[in-house]
Each structure stands twice: as C-alpha cells, then as structure tokens.
Amino acid sequence: MNNTNASATQAGFHYQDIVGLILFIDNVTDVQSINVEGEDDIDILFRDGTYGFYQVKEVQNPDNKNMSTKLKEALETLDVDSKNKNLKSLIYVSNANNPLGSLKNSLEFFKPYAYYKYSDLSQKLKTKIDDKLAIHPNIDKNKLGVMKIAYEGSDSMTRESELDSRIHHFIGLMGLSEAHFNNLKNEWRQMIVKTTEFPQTTITKEQFYSHTVVTAMFQNPNLDNFFNECQILPTNEIYIQDSYLHYLNRLMENFQLVNSIETNFILFRQENLSLGRQDLMINFINTYHLQLKKDLGLVDDEDDDIAKFILWISIKTYSVTRNIKGVMKL
C-alpha cells in the first residue's frame, strides 16, 4: 500500500500541504475536489459549483510582525482569482500570529487556528487590509477572509499538531480506532503531496473516500480467519499473503469499484434474506468473486482467492465503510 513509504512523504510534506489536508477535512461534506498548486496555492471546488481560493504564506518566525509584503503578495494573487464567475471565497492563510501586521492588543490570531471573514475583523484590522485593497478594487470584501493555522516547533509532532487534532477528530467521527491514525495520515499525506508535485492532479471526494476505506479495511487483516472461513487451500496461502497488497492500489484508485462491491452486497442480501450471516457472506463471495477478479484485471487461477479476500474483508468492514460514506455525505 502507498502508506508503507512513510519516510518519503515525511520529507515532502510542508506547510502548504498541511493546510490543504486541513481544508479538505474541514470541508469534507461540501467539497467536490481540491487542487494544491492549481490556479492558486490551494483551490477547492465545492459541490454547488463554486470555488474557494487560498493564498498560503508561511513565515519562519510566527512572531514576525512585519507582514506587509506577505499580505500584499497574497492580495495580488487573490485579485486575479476574484475574476472567477463562480467565486465563493478568497482566503489569505498564514502561520503568523500577526498575519495582517502588528497591532497593539490584537489577539485574534494568537491561537493555533483562527478564521475571520473580513466583516468580522476589528475595524483596526480592516484598515490594515483596506490600505492594501486600494489598488485591488476587484476583490469583493464580502468574500475575503483571513485564516491562521499554526505551524511551528522543532519536530513534526509539534509542527503538525493542528493537523493531527483534525485527523483524530475525523477518525472518531468515522467510527475508526486510533490504531488507524498513522496509516490514514500517511495515505492522505501522499495524496496531497501528489497534487503538489503534479499541479494538474486533483483529489476528488470519491478518491479520498476510496483511499480511506481501503486503507482502513486492510489494516492488520486476519488472514487466518479468511483462510478458515473461505476454505482456502494451504498451497495458495503464501501467495495471498505475498500478493494481495499489490492489488490494493487498483482498488484505491477506483471509487466505482469500491462502491460496486457495497452495492452488490446490499442487493445480494436483499435477495437472500433467509440466509444466515455466515452463509450470506460465503455465498456472496462465491457468486461475485469472478466479476471482481475481472474488474481488477486479474487472470491467474490463484488470483481467484485474491478477489475472494477483498470481498471477505469488505463484508467484514461493511458497517464501518457505510459510516465513513455517511460522514463524508457521499
């Protein structure tokens, strides 16, 4: 699985990527797709067809009070974004405690996370923006906002603490245990980094769901139970242990296929209400595994059992995946 290469992603995961993942999680019910390094630093397409554009400005010293240049640069780019006809929001994002510059007794952004629409800022902070907006008349103040997301410290646990708190909360909403934290974080991290490296690449909510479900389903699977329940020949057990991870990437990248497994199981269950739980599972696996094998592009006889295993683990985790879908409103 992708998340086995955690060291590579750790090296390539930076503030902008963290902001992108936080924004995706925060907006997961309404987002359609996200693009890091798209038209702007971060672009979000919402389900209603509108766009949010985010200018991300990191500073090495969060206590830096001279933010005039950063604010100026952000507004220049957001001015270009403001021409989008389906514009929802223009957001300036910073890790600075004074993202708009120094202002005595101003504590709005002295917290790990803070978001203020222009209309909610104090008059003195509005004035700091107004001074720069004089040359950007196209920017609609009603769609302008300022966001602070903390990023500081001497190790990744400290720098990424705001992201980690989001992930812990999100995992809880999905009904998953904390044992999934590292695998999911690394998988999501790599998805975001990929959009940074390849600007034309976006992450859709469907892709995010597929990666999440597959990562959660196949964490520490009990292969011995599968071998026993599905009566797998001992001669094929080692092949399954060595091979099944190889095919998970195909499943991760195919929301339609992940969804079809769930849909077909629901239909099969409705048509076979008289079957007990164990018989229902075994009959479904025996009925559907050849179709899944074909959909995954598998051709060898021993791959029948790979398809059976994917179906087996999908059924075992059906209630969890259904809950994940509900949380994401898919």
What report would you give on this structure?
This protein is an alpha/beta fold and 330 residues long. It is 51% helix and 12% strand. The protein contains 15 helices and seven strands. The chain has helices spanning 6-11, 15-26, 68-81, 123-133, 156-159, 161-173, 181-197, 205-217, 223-229, 237-243, 248-252, 255-271, 277-295, 304-316, 318-328; strands at 31-36, 42-46, 51-57, 87-94, 113-117, 144-149, 203-204. A seven-stranded mixed beta sheet has the order 5-6-4-3-2-1-7. Helix 2 (15-26) runs parallel beside helix 6, helix 2 (15-26) crosses helix 7 and helix 7 packs antiparallel against helix 8. The model is unreliable at 1-11 (pLDDT under 50).
